[in-house]
């Protein structure tokens, strides 16, 4: 199975490797899920007319602007990048240091470390492994029992094997699509040894997205590695390290989606792909 949260990677697969589309996770990206849940769930919870809601996603990713136009992923009305927001704040002379803090709305006010690390290369893979460990063992993920840190790092292609019960789970992580070609050819030819493959278009993952603030070229790796370290630091400080522990996620399933893989969950949280070659 391939990850599906990077829209640039998804479009690349649709264009250049349509043979592997059946192996892409059908899960929408986090933004794709949130947009539709704001309209279909949050609106009902807050007793609002969903037609009056206008949803804007602020992202490090320019490819989200393409994803916004996919008919299969409705719900988000506009996408602006971090750089665009920064310029807008400067134009309006708004200094975030002087803005009062406030709480998030209750749709997804609580996050998790597993969600936090989605933003860097290998984070999606590690988050999925934490949940896999829980479903296979019945025990909550605990870094003292099993560590998935072998998938971390800044190499363009990383691979690791983890033993969970009697299963040896083989994973690969790629950031920068140009580094993925051999791996994709192996999958296409049926010679790949991996169970799960994470691919992100941008080096470093979303923290290196095209919509992020720019920096001196010589500082690129240093800046990205510091951004990655910041996400892992937040994950370590968090009391919740896996998405299945998130009380807000549990409530959404209890009140609306029923259970993972239910008909309504598939309707709102999953998508389809199309050949673009």
Please write out the topology.
Elements: H1 7-16, H2 30-45, E1 56-59, H3 64-67, E2 78-81, H4 82-91, H5 113-116, H6 123-137, E3 157-164, E4 167-175, H7 181-189, E5 196-200, H8 220-237, H9 247-257, H10 263-269
Parallel strand pairs: 1-2, 4-5
Antiparallel strand pairs: 3-4
* Tally of DSSP helical segments: 10
Rg: 19 Å
Largest sheet: 3 strands, mixed
In total, the number of domains comes to 1
CATH superfamily: Fe-only Hydrogenase (Larger Subunit), Chain L, domain 3
Q: Shape from CA axes?
A: globular
Enumerate the strands of the largest sheet in spatial order, edge to edge or round the barrel: 3-4-5
- The SSE order reads HHEHEHHHEEHEHHH
Which ranges are low-confidence, i.e. pLDDT below 50, for 5 or more consecutive residues?
none
Class based on secondary structure composition and strand pairing = alpha/beta
Overall pLDDT: 94
Describe it for me?
The chain is α/β, with parallel strands linked by helices and 277 residues long. The protein has a single domain (7-269), classed as Fe-only Hydrogenase (Larger Subunit), Chain L, domain 3 (3-Layer(aba) Sandwich). The protein is built from 10 helices and 5 strands; from the N terminus they run H-H-E-H-E-H-H-H-E-E-H-E-H-H-H. It has a 3-stranded mixed sheet with strand order 3-4-5, covered by helices on one side. A two-stranded parallel ribbon has the order 1-2. Helix 7 (181-189) links the parallel strand 4 and strand 5 (196-200). The protein is globular. The mean pLDDT is 94.
